[in-house]
Amino acid sequence: MNFEYKEPLLVQEVASRDGLQIETQWVETADKIALIDGLSACGFTRIEAGSFVSPKAIPALRDGDAVFNGIARREGVIYVALVPKVKGAERALAANADELNLVMSASQTHNRANMRMSCELSLAGFGDIVRLVDGIQHAKVSLNATVATAFGCPFEGRIDEDRVVSIARAYREMGIAGITLADTTGMANPRQVARLVSRVLEHVSAADLTLHFHNTRGLGLANVLAAYDAGARRFDAALGGLGGCPFAPGASGNICTEDLVNMCDEMGIPTGVDLQKLIALSRTLPALVGHEVSGQVAKAGRNCDLHPVPEYVLTI
Amino acid sequence: MNFEYKEPLLVQEVASRDGLQIETQWVETADKIALIDGLSACGFTRIEAGSFVSPKAIPALRDGDAVFNGIARREGVIYVALVPKVKGAERALAANADELNLVMSASQTHNRANMRMSCELSLAGFGDIVRLVDGIQHAKVSLNATVATAFGCPFEGRIDEDRVVSIARAYREMGIAGITLADTTGMANPRQVARLVSRVLEHVSAADLTLHFHNTRGLGLANVLAAYDAGARRFDAALGGLGGCPFAPGASGNICTEDLVNMCDEMGIPTGVDLQKLIALSRTLPALVGHEVSGQVAKAGRNCDLHPVPEYVLTI
């Protein structure tokens, strides 16, 4: 492990999309907007703010249009929308999303379970979205596509690494600049991460590659470390560690943003995020979603938040 | 990070000592014995089975003698006892502990808070214990000493690395073979871990050095990875992630044994531990301690524990 370099690590905040999408307690549109505006005030430059999917499929995010129209657009912040299909892309463009994030699983079974179509049909839909964006004159919107279950599938198990690399290359050949490798149900391990990141970086620059880890089996930050060490510089994370996967019941969710930022702060890796503000924002989550969240740093505080010395110690 | 080597990683199980010591619900002696015997059946070769401290200080472990006398000694397993003072050492020897683990904090304030004495007095007490063991003919007991708060103190903050190295050297010069560096309240980060482990390995062989991490700020397994990469091979961990520190309220505990073993299994690093048995044992913990525990793998299952494919998928 090379601990000399201290290149910046870019955190894309996904609490308002991947975090909230499985919550059963309805979060008011105004509260979603306040969360996103709170995140941009912490210093994030990329926020996945919502998704444009069928309200039947993900009722928790059915107000994507109102959310995108309500947020205070902060200069320099890219507001991303998840759009699996062309219909969602049209809505996202109408709502002035800065970037569209398309998603397909490397696993056929997971894609059928999640998107209700084959990978081939998903890819054909991506082509439609690329053509839609290309057809808009002066469109400033950028494109990213996610390879879900890139490190393992809860139905199929291991995923062939060649398949993940070839999907990433196919995305690029379609004209999609950004690539995300997603460990959708937390099956990745650091050795696998280092290997796959190295392979994908032969085809995609570090500036265009995002890693999306879940902490389902407690390995989230270890995987970030391995990916960073292998050259990755962009990571998804969700405030409080919100999120999860309906096909992996009982598991914890996305890697926790404040735990990741704390790790970077302690290691001297710049993120541009204000950890103290972030912790304060995270502490509002339990009231918002109606349950405790899995993040640690919001409970334990930063290292520099020292505890008072017990009185009896002074007499020893 | 060098991901080619796959040298074995030795896990010392500390659930029955560091895990149980802060539990408020009384765990019956027979249940403690069953837990320890369950652990030795999973393949652990080192188990910190209990402590011999004042029953007023740690009432949860007041039955250390009965526990040591009740366990089924499995051949090849070293049963360790935590003994901060000479009186405890006498009790541990009478109970046939295989190894004594002494403990002092690198931080004067933490040592006064935890041990109610200065570091100088703690070290003098260690000398008494070394002489006690030396004075017993044919004594087969081995000695280990822990540097607590080696990576940070909740009262003092940063700990000077030179001080940690010099304490480790002082332990060795007293005739104590084993050294543990403990991140008592989870303040370590991977960069610091790599640096300090490298420095201490100049004075202590990897076979004699143990790392003890807490997951207080979510960095436990990332720190294991950094330490392993720097040459460390022995790690403490507690079933279910039990434990914690009274001076770091709200925080989670020791790194979770089954999460660590799962990481090693997935990375191809041998531990000699049966993960499936271990998960089954961990799932008995909530009933034993009266609350949910923080470990992830016992909730999510192993990667190879696949989920059934939803019926609707077959029609797509």
From TrEMBL, chains A, B:
Protein's UniProt keywords contain Metal-binding: yes
InterPro entries in alphabetical order: Aldolase_TIM, HMGL, PYR_CT
GO biological process: ketone body biosynthetic process; L-leucine catabolic process
CDD domains: DRE_TIM_HMGL (cd07938)
Keywords: Lyase, Metal-binding
The family this protein is said to belong to: Belongs to the HMG-CoA lyase family.
Protein's name in the database: Hydroxymethylglutaryl-CoA lyase
Entry EC no(s): 4.1.3.4
Residue span, Pyruvate carboxyltransferase domain: 9-279
GO MF entries: hydroxymethylglutaryl-CoA lyase activity; metal ion binding
Lineage, uppermost ranks: Bacteria, Pseudomonadati, Pseudomonadota, Betaproteobacteria, Burkholderiales
Pfam families (alphabetical): HMGL-like (PF00682)
